[in-house]
Amino acid sequence: MNVGIEALNVYCGLAQIPVRTLFEGRGLDQERMGNLMMDNRSVGLPFEDPVTNAVNAAKPVVDRLTEEQKNRIEIVITSTESGLDYSKSVASYVHEHLGLSRNCRVVEVKQACYAATAAVQLAVGYVASGVSPGAKALVIATDVALVDERAAYAEPAMGAGAAAVLVSDDPRVLAVDLGAFGNHSYETMDSARPSPSFDIADSDRSLFAYLDCLTNCFESYRAKVEDVDFATTFDYLAMHTPFAGMVKAAHRKLMREFAGSASAEADFTRRVLPSLTYPSRVGNLCSGSVYLALCSLIDNGALDGGARVGLYSYGSGCSSEFFSGLVDRGSADELAAMRIGEHLAGRCELTFEEYTRVLPGNLTCLVPEQDRQVDVAAYDDIVGRAHVERDLLVNTGTKDYRRTYEWLSR
């Protein structure tokens, strides 16, 4: 049975700042910039939040469906570290502003940067079960970044935005290898968000947990799937990308453990580098990160024929999964309609002064306030310098704790 990703899109905001500009503005050691392998990072504006990011990522996917197809979306799941309420899900707002059927399961899930993959696999299982033939599930990974100068070298690596994944029995983008997956999970405090205004992280612990989980969940994958050879089974690899340099280190570790004497550098260039084009221009998209990498691979890889992709998803805390699927030329044609490369190129480039001006609004966008107004017009100059060809949802504040939204017409 063919089940997997029917459609896929990412939205990474209206603004970005070059990593070099951020390093210079913060006085960071320039010699460490090469380790990140980052060019830019997406920057959320004060009227962008988890809901707007999710809706703006998913709307192009939903708009391409007929009314009948749209009504077959039976599950809407948002995965996020940036929850807006202890009870009400981000998905409830998203469901409303996408105009989806009221005959939907609507839910939010959380497990740091892994949660979207858990939701995608649950959706794959639901569709594959056949309990509701022709059903679709919409999974949206959406987050904002809560970093400033206190985050030091993590600040240039954090992105913002969302990835929308439509799962169905018509997998035009990625046909998932059913039953081919490996998991590894345990409790560790490598990062956390103890309040809606800041993150904490133990960088060394996170690095080791990421690499430990990668080895062990790949071993778990090999235990389920016969005749797996890391060097030859997968034509491409797409991994959770905290920063591109981390993926290069992870690939080198797997090559050393599972591929013997093969050249890690040449293999990285051929099988991994296409997946890092977009992440190096966005930063860490949290649970949407591996799907941003998949988009990058499909848009930038050579997909003349069919290709098997090995995917690695990791979330702090921690949980991880290695799984796989098939892509082909049709995948590239389907994803091309989303024009993701154009979207990323069209973001407004911020100066360091503009970046520090919008940062306070970013850091407080999750803090609950009974009544708040966001002056969207105050950022007209930035919006005007971004290349936008469609209406976008923006947050205008809160009224009696209910978040309010409007469509910004272009």
TrEMBL record:
<dbReference type="GO" id="GO:0006084">
    <property type="term" value="P:acetyl-CoA metabolic process"/>
</dbReference>
<keyword id="KW-0808">Transferase</keyword>
<dbReference type="GO" id="GO:0004421">
    <property type="term" value="F:hydroxymethylglutaryl-CoA synthase activity"/>
</dbReference>
<dbReference type="InterPro" id="IPR016039">
    <property type="entry name" value="Thiolase-like"/>
</dbReference>
<comment type="similarity">
    <text>Belongs to the thiolase-like superfamily. HMG-CoA synthase family.</text>
</comment>
<feature type="domain" description="Hydroxymethylglutaryl-coenzyme A synthase N-terminal">
    <location>
        <begin position="2"/>
        <end position="169"/>
    </location>
</feature>
<dbReference type="Pfam" id="PF08540">
    <property type="entry name" value="HMG_CoA_synt_C"/>
</dbReference>
<dbReference type="InterPro" id="IPR013528">
    <property type="entry name" value="HMG_CoA_synth_N"/>
</dbReference>
<protein>
    <submittedName>
        <fullName>Polyketide biosynthesis 3-hydroxy-3-methylglutaryl-CoA synthase-like enzyme PksG</fullName>
    </submittedName>
</protein>
<dbReference type="InterPro" id="IPR013746">
    <property type="entry name" value="HMG_CoA_synt_C_dom"/>
</dbReference>
<feature type="domain" description="Hydroxymethylglutaryl-coenzyme A synthase C-terminal">
    <location>
        <begin position="264"/>
        <end position="359"/>
    </location>
</feature>
<dbReference type="Pfam" id="PF01154">
    <property type="entry name" value="HMG_CoA_synt_N"/>
</dbReference>
